Fold these 3 entries.
Entry 1:
Amino acid sequence: MSFDAPSLVSLDYTDYALYKYPLVNFESLLEAKLNLYYSENIKRPDITGLIIGISNVQTLHLCGGSVDVISRCVKHGLVLPVFKNLVKLSFATGNKKSWKLLPCLLKQSPKVETLIIKGNDGDTCDVTIGLLQVKVLDVLGYKGTAKEFEHLKSLFGVRNPAKPSFLIGLELLFNDEEGSAVLSFLRAKNRSKQFIFPVFAIRT
């Protein structure tokens, strides 16, 4: 499939990942939402052209299927381009491959200031996610399990003395005991001036 839309500013693309994207011209694109999925009929899709074609966006939304497709393609040789204008990244997780992809994307996105993580309740792996440039971190769908809490702490383990404050919005769904543990941790971080956070919603 080819895209020749130099005036397009917003893209919402849902499809199976295809063999090739020979022409992708999104010269004016500011925002892209990718909903890519694997088809049993296309074992080794090549999304290189598509990813390069959207690399100038300022806002990028990746659903869980897209993260899975990109992760598999990276494993098979896809080199991620530099997203030089990207300031807001929405990233759906759910398995170990997705957590491994996130730090790679952040490394290639030097201007990212807002990171939205969706689906923190899936499998995780031991990766360090650099949040040095991130100013706003939203964790959506957090259920407060012990596994998630440990992973959340690892996400917040990197501190940049030059940028001591993060604005963190948490949509939390947990019981009182688990919620107290999360909030105690965040309040301790807040007192140490590592974080400033509002809690958007607490439902018990």
Entry 2:
Amino acid sequence: MNIPPFHGKTDPEAYLEWEKKIEHIFECHNYSERKKVLIAALEFTHYAINWWNQLTVNRRRNGECPVSTWDEMKAIMRKRFIPTHYHRELLRKLQNLTQGSMSVEDYFKEMELAMIRANIEEDQETIIARFVSGLNPEIADTVELQYYVDLEEVVHLAMKVEKQLKRKGTSRNHFSTSKWSQKSKWGPNTSKTPYKAYQTPIKPSQTKGGRWDLQITTAP
């Protein structure tokens, strides 16, 4: 099982992704804490390996003990590669998260991922309330009227409502298109629009007594 490399970029999401992958590997093997530290450090490259070597030298020079557990190593790496404002930004993003143009499924995944990254643990009722409040109004209004037991049921219900709304929208568009096509078959002369009257003056020489008469004609 290959351990992913870590380059040492100041990218919180990249670091957390690396941390999650390496922890999955550790769960599959009965490594000691010291060995976990050594295995993780073996995959440091570029800036990360230079940073780690310098940190090790400084700890030895200052009379500190070597990093001996994976939890200690994680704490040191998080302090270096995750900015202090990152957690606040995650919380703000989660508070302002709404469905918008996303599908229900993508919106739920985005919310779930934001909660994992922010390390937020909430009871199921709170998570359901958070999810429903961020749905688009036409979906949320219907979901709130339904009976549900757990979060998964609410998500599936919202996805079902979304599909129903899409089908209704497609049906309306098809009906409007058919109605317009049917009207266009009648042609211009079959319209019920009343004819306009045109007043055409006739020259005095064309009338008796030299009066101007009006000739009424109709045109479609």
Entry 3:
Amino acid sequence: MTTDMTQAQNPFGISYDPYRHLAEHYPHIAVIRIRLNDKVVGLTDGKSVVFLDERLNEVEDRNVLCHEVVHIDHGHGTCQPPEVEYMVRAETARRLIDIDELLKATQVTQDRAALARLVNVTRQTLHDRLATSSEEDRAKLWNAHPKGL
């Protein structure tokens, strides 16, 4: 198995779709792609629009949209303090990376960059998932890979 598969061919990392979530729960919210400044890749007013940087690739786009959807789900409409951003990043990672899909992917590779590609997330999102996993999820990972990832 190679790690350069398209998402349609990839059996990992496809269980949560932030576009579907947005359409089902917030059909009135528009997604607009524009060039944002170099420090911002996405933002939302929490009510009517999500802006995504037009330079994002597919994986980044999915990750950033999910992050903004988590903000919307929590009623956020402006920039949040670091502790809230940390919580949003953790929830984004949990939504995008199902632990069982991650465990299947680790049977193919344990290289973090390759794992991120297999589960269709950025390396940062994979890092967030591993760093903020529940004790139960950590136990599953540990049992599968006692030497760690």
